[in-house]
């Protein structure tokens, strides 16, 4: 029986059990895709990650990211949670930044006091979403036409479409029929009013994933990375702001967005709440 380090890390929360958990399996080079998928189904979290030796000489480690249904080329909170687990397991980066290899290539991660932050990867698809598809999604979410300000693709590997809404109250009012989203992962967001010039701007956001084990994601780094690039391109947000997510699910997700030069960094806390050993004799066939 092969034993492996197993961690569950709570990401994007200022206190335990209030963020988005990810399961991390270390030393996974000898696991097959079928075995990884089986573990991900068993953990029953939105994502489970597997840490392997990098094949890219410029990376510190490689990660494969699985939902309960399929593998993802990139995801935000699994990136930060995996990095925290890798560091705690004795990982030492080759440079000042940590470099993760995943399905979209290299993702840079930096340490900022107690927080971790990843550099938003390039968008694979951006720009205006098709009007008929937007209209169908608007109806599925129960949003009135005048409450929808804009809709764009912000796909960095997870397929996100984002809807900019008139107010945070509209965001929190949504009661979606996810069966009518047509398989498109959808994020919604709106800005709060800033009362003083010294107050850090804030947004409210939610994320819906049709067909997933968790139809509403608690806190979503990949979505916020895509939205941040849209907002910065159209000059709809300042260089520094915070996104709140998950409150209707009993979470208090806090995603810090910071623009530094040409880079947009998506950051937050990553707290290891489960630290143990995965001991499992696999009987799945390897194909």
Task: Lay out the secondary structure.
Layout: E1 3-11, E2 20-25, H1 33-43, E3 48-52, E4 61-66, E5 71-72, H2 76-88, E6 98-102, E7 105-112, E8 115-119, E9 125-128, H3 131-141, E10 148-155, E11 161-165, H4 168-173, E12 186-191, E13 202-208, E14 216-217, H5 221-233, E15 240-245, E16 253-260, E17 263-268, E18 270-279
Parallel strand pairs: 2-3, 4-6, 11-12, 13-15
Antiparallel strand pairs: 1-2, 1-18, 3-4, 4-5, 6-7, 7-8, 8-17, 9-10, 10-11, 12-13, 13-14, 15-16, 16-17
GO molecular function: isomerase activity
Family: Belongs to the PhzF family.
Active site: 47
Overall outline: globular
Tell me the quaternary state. Answer: single chain
Would you list the SSEs in sequence order as H and E? EEHEEEHEEEEHEEHEEEHEEEE
CATH class of the largest domain: Alpha Beta
Helicity level: 10-25%
Number of helices: 5
Radius of gyration: 19 Å
Low-confidence stretches: none
- The name of the CATH topology of the largest domain is Diaminopimelate Epimerase, Chain A, domain 1
Total discrete domains: 2
From the helix content, strand content and strand pairing, which structural class follows? Answer: alpha+beta
CATH superfamily of the largest domain: Diaminopimelate Epimerase, Chain A, domain 1
**Per DSSP, what share of the residues sits in E-state strands of 2 or more residues?**
35-45%
Mean pLDDT: 94
Note the main sheet: 18 strands, mixed
Count of individual beta strands? 18
């Amino acid at each position: 029986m092969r034993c492996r380090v197993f961690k569950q890390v709570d990401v994007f929360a200022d206190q335990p059990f209030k963020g988005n958990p990810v399961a991390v399996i270390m030393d996974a080079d000898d696991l097959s895709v079928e075995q990884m998928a089986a573990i991900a189904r068993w953990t029953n979290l939105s994502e489970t990650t597997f840490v392997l030796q990098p094949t890219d000489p410029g990376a510190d480690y490689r990660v494969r990211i699985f939902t309960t249904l399929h593998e993802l080329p990139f995801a935000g909170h699994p990136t930060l949670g995996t990095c925290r687990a890798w560091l705690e397991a004795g990982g030492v980066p080759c440079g000042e930044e940590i470099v993760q290899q995943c399905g979209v290539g290299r993702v840079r991660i930096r340490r900022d006091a107690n927080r971790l932050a990843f550099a938003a990867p390039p968008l694979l698809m951006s720009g205006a979403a098709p009007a008929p598809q937007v209209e169908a999604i608007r109806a599925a979410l129960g949003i009135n036409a005048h409450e929808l300000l804009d809709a764009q693709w912000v796909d960095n590997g997870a397929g996100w479409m984002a809807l900019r809404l008139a107010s945070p109250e509209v965001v929190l009012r949504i009661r979606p029929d996810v069966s009518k989203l047509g398989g498109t992962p959808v994020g919604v967001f709106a800005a709060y009013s800033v009362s003083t010039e010294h107050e850090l701007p804030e947004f409210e956001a939610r994320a819906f994933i049709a067909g997933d084990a968790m139809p509403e994601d608690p806190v979503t780094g990949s979505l916020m990375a895509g939205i941040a690039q849209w907002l910065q391109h159209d000059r709809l947000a300042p260089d520094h702001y915070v996104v709140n997510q998950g409150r209707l699910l009993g979470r208090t997700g806090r995603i810090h967005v910071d623009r530094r030069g040409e880079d947009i960094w998506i950051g937050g806390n990553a707290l290891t709440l489960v630290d143990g050993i995965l001991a499992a004799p696999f009987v799945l066939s390897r194909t």
